Amino acid sequence: APVSPPAQHLFSDPAEIQALRRNLLAWYDKCKRDLPWRTLAATEPDADRRAYAVWVSEIMLQQTQVATVIDYYNRWMQKWPTLQALAQASLEEVNELWAGLGYYSRGKRLQEAAKKVVSELAGRMPRTAEDLQKLLPGVGRYTAGAIASISYGQATGIVDGNVIRVLCRLRCIGADSSSSAVTDCLWDMANAVVDRSRPGDFNQALMELGATVCVPKAPLCGECPVRKQCRARHRKLLGQPTPVPDVEDCGVGDCPLCPPAAEPWDSSLGVTNFPRKAAKKQPRSARTATCVLERRGCHGAPEYLIVQRPRSGLLAGLWEFPSLPVAQSLQEEKEREVLADHLQAWMGQPVAAEGLQLIGEVVHIFSHIHQTYVVYSLPLDGDVTWDSASSPSRWVTEEEFHASAVSTAMKKVL
Ligand code: SF4
């Protein structure tokens, strides 16, 4: 049966909550980074336009660093400044702009959701976190809470990686932070502490604190605006939990929020005892033989053949050099043969395995796949036609290649 978390891990003192809100917001007003989506959210009078900007930025920021996102965000908003403009875009255009940002299904789902708002919701965004999550594909609990609090002023908390770290440290939560007991507790806590009059700023402040001060490895506790409310810091300074827990409840293995009894507080880690995560699953290894077919274009510049991937699955709809997944253990000679057969079947003309020149290997890490591309090159004298019935293809110059919807991995291959 679930054990309810001991009160010492929660925020229960109203004065302490007030102090947390006050200190955090004052720090945010002074120290926040200038980011284009923040500027727009602060200056745009139309709430739906604000919501659209926050939505785009939040989807781009999932799994991606702020510094990388800024350029993509600016180009996106220039091309599709409104939801209505995005709803008119093609998947090809979305993939082209998204190329290099990774996790391509994010762009696709964003565009599908924009279409849905325009065609099924009369162009009006849902305005609460509950409706946003329920009605928009690709919008989860976190993104819904971010849009609702920042754009529509709903007093709802949000929990992302940064917030998990900050809250776990503030309340000495050391159980596996991906467990349902901890996740539920963190959402309850985020909803309890969010500032009622400035929920969007409060949520952004909590995330900003995690991104710039309460960072994973060497947090800047001395500069932290909420250090007085931080139990991990108290514990580090005093060498014992604060307040001293009831031994019946906490620290002896029964508490669903304490570090597991087998891995207790390690004083050499200090506040970085929190949070803790279960060991990550190792990505699986995969190997793909890929062939760069090259010909001389009309002005003598090289051109390359690219083909489009299926419209679903990994890297859906993106363009790549003709490729074939192969077994890890395949010998080079055999690999050359199967790749030549593959090319032959698509090109409808003989391809000699010996003509394929092995260039080298490119390794690319997707979130869950450790992918090795074995790169071959095949220079061609004349034109070839690719069987476009199953897979569209086209010849591109190097410049056109970089402007196409191709993944970072394929850029490395070229
Ligand atoms: Fe994080 Fe340190 Fe601030 Fe606590 S005092 S919230 S551990 S930066």
From TrEMBL:
Its EC number is 3.2.2.31. It comes from Psilopogon haemacephalus. It comes from the Eukaryota. Belongs to the Nth/MutY family. This is Adenine DNA glycosylase. Keywords: 4Fe-4S, DNA damage, DNA repair, Glycosidase, Hydrolase, Iron, Iron-sulfur, Metal-binding, Mitochondrion, Nucleus. One of its GO terms (biological process) is base-excision repair. Residues 60-212 form the HhH-GPD domain. GO terms for cellular component: mitochondrion; nucleus. Its cofactor is [4Fe-4S] cluster. It is found in: Mitochondrion; Nucleus. It catalyses: Hydrolyzes free adenine bases from 7,8-dihydro-8-oxoguanine:adenine mismatched double-stranded DNA, leaving an apurinic site. Involved in oxidative DNA damage repair. Initiates repair of A*oxoG to C*G by removing the inappropriately paired adenine base from the DNA backbone. Possesses both adenine and 2-OH-A DNA glycosylase activities. Adenine glycosylase active on G-A mispairs. One of its GO terms (molecular function) is 4 iron, 4 sulfur cluster binding. The keyword Cell cycle does not apply. It is an enzyme of class 3 (hydrolase).
